[in-house]
Write a structure and sequence with these properties.
Layout (H helix, E strand, L loop, with lengths): L14 H4 L10 E8 L5 E5 L6 E6 L9 E4 L12 E4 L11 E14 L2 E2 L2 E6 L16 H13 L9 E7 L1 H18 L7
Parallel strand pairs: 5-8
Antiparallel strand pairs: 1-4, 1-6, 2-3, 4-5, 6-7, 6-8, 6-9
């Protein structure tokens, strides 16, 4: 059973609230709940109360996600959602709602209409095709331009000029962002959970 420290249950557990963010003590791999794949304009989000996926919106333009996308369990970002994660270099579509282990390669600091909405950047932990990717720098200059362009323009037909990429940072900064979001989860969400 994945990496759950919980016995089987007749009631489906919400993986957002029972999986740890990090999967190992080196803090280089995180659990990821897959929300969507690349090449889609449909934005699915995890319903935090149930763990199901919901179609949050259909994009306002033909600008499609250039990477798989999901969230990290037991984290809470400043925008009031679990911390987002971009999974780059995925060669075959992932199943939305599934759990994957992602190896951290950086973080993108992002301002979405005045809200902090950072994005951890990762690759699939057990994809040997990605072993040579150690940091986001290994993805190349074009990847940085494409990713920046996507995030700064994906809402242009709805709210032009409201999104700003504030830079790309390394693994150490990504781990700090995750830890901050874990602490916010423990303070704001964990006390509200019911047994």
């Amino acid at each position: 059973m994945a990496n759950l420290n919980q016995p089987p249950s007749r009631v489906t557990p919400n993986l957002l609230h029972i999986l740890d963010a990090f999967t190992n003590s080196t803090k280089s791999v995180v659990n990821t709940i897959v929300e969507l794949n690349s090449n889609t304009i449909n934005k699915y989000e995890l319903i935090t109360e149930t763990g199901h996926l919901k179609l949050d919106r259909v994009g306002y333009s033909s600008l499609a996600y250039p990477f798989a996308y999901g969230c990290i369990p037991r984290t809470w970002d400043e925008d009031g959602d679990p911390l987002d994660i971009e999974i780059v270099g995925v060669t075959e579509a992932l199943i939305p709602g599934s759990i994957v282990e992602s190896r951290i390669i950086g973080v993108m600091k992002f301002d979405d209409g005045g809200e902090v909405d950072d994005k951890v950047i990762a690759v699939l932990a057990d994809d040997k095709r990605m072993d040579h990717i150690k940091t986001f720098d290994d993805l190349g200059e074009h990847w940085l331009k494409e990713t920046t362009y996507y995030w700064e323009h994906y809402k242009d037909l709805k709210k032009p000029g409201t999104c700003k990429v504030n830079g790309f940072y390394g693994i150490k900064e990504a781990v700090e962002v995750i830890k901050d979001c874990e602490a916010r989860y423990l303070k704001e969400i964990d006390p509200k959970l019911v047994d």
